[in-house]
Write a structure and sequence with these properties.
Layout lengths: L13 H19 L14 E7 L2 E7 L9 E5 L10 H8 L1 H8 L4 H7 L4 H31 L6 H21 L2 H39 L1
Antiparallel strand pairs: 1-2, 2-3
Helix pairs in contact: 2-3, 5-6, 6-7
Length: 218
């Protein structure tokens, strides 16, 4: 009797689709939460520029370009709303450079998306994206290896990618002064390095065990 061919394994498309959907949801929430749930309600027709003063965050409301005179209002998340300020008053309180930033916003899409204020920040954000890309690739490697074996496995590459991505993200979070991110990566780096060392010791032991019969016969 002819042997029954093994059923063809179907590629699981659901996980990558869900990854893309979760990423899209996260990006949307980051973009929209700038003013959501903060109590800040700019007047209709105005535009806003993000503002941070010490530990307080909010926006500068700028009147439309077609208004008779440009004016600004500082609106903080703690509920503070200033009286309308003229350009001269705004510059007196915050400086000429801040006035330029709110009247002539630069690269606002990138700056707003990554919550940064200059092109140096874009370089750091790119570094963070590279680190996150490497860090996320470990899950792709682990998932593909598990799909191939039809069981949960963790290849050694998982730990190398974890360590490389973790080091980059640790550096990025230090620059962002994000203690939560630093805390999350600092403990992981030790675990990743330890697993790499254990994997190396295992390979060495396996190699020595495989060489013993040959040495015994010679």
């Amino acid at each position: 009797a002819m042997p029954t061919p093994a059923p063809k394994r179907r590629f699981k498309w659901e996980p990558p689709v869900l990854m893309v959907l979760v990423l899209a949801l996260g990006a949307w929430l980051v973009w929209e939460r700038k003013h959501a749930f903060t109590g800040i309600e700019p007047a209709p027709g105005t535009r806003t520029v993000e503002l941070r003063v010490g530990n307080s965050r909010g926006v500068v409301e700028v009147t439309p370009a077609d208004a008779p005179a440009t004016s600004f209002r500082v609106m903080l998340r703690n509920g503070y709303v200033s009286q309308p300020l003229s350009p001269a008053q705004f510059a007196q309180q915050f400086g000429e450079r801040a006035l330029d930033d709110v009247t002539l916003p630069r690269a606002n899409v990138l700056f707003r998306l990554f919550n940064i204020t200059n092109w140096g920040g874009v370089a750091w954000a790119a570094l963070g994206l590279i680190g996150q890309g490497i860090f996320s690739a470990r899950f792709l490697v682990q998932w593909l290896a598990s799909e191939k074996e039809r069981k949960t496995v963790i290849p050694v590459a998982f730990w190398y990618l974890s360590l490389a991505g973790g080091v980059i993200l640790f550096t990025y979070f230090v620059w962002r002064q994000d203690f939560v991110g630093v805390l999350g990566q600092s403990s992981g780096l030790v675990i990743y390095a330890r697993n790499i060392k254990l994997a190396a010791k295992h390979r060495k032991a396996m190699s020595e065990a495989a060489a013993k019969p040959e040495n015994a016969q010679s």
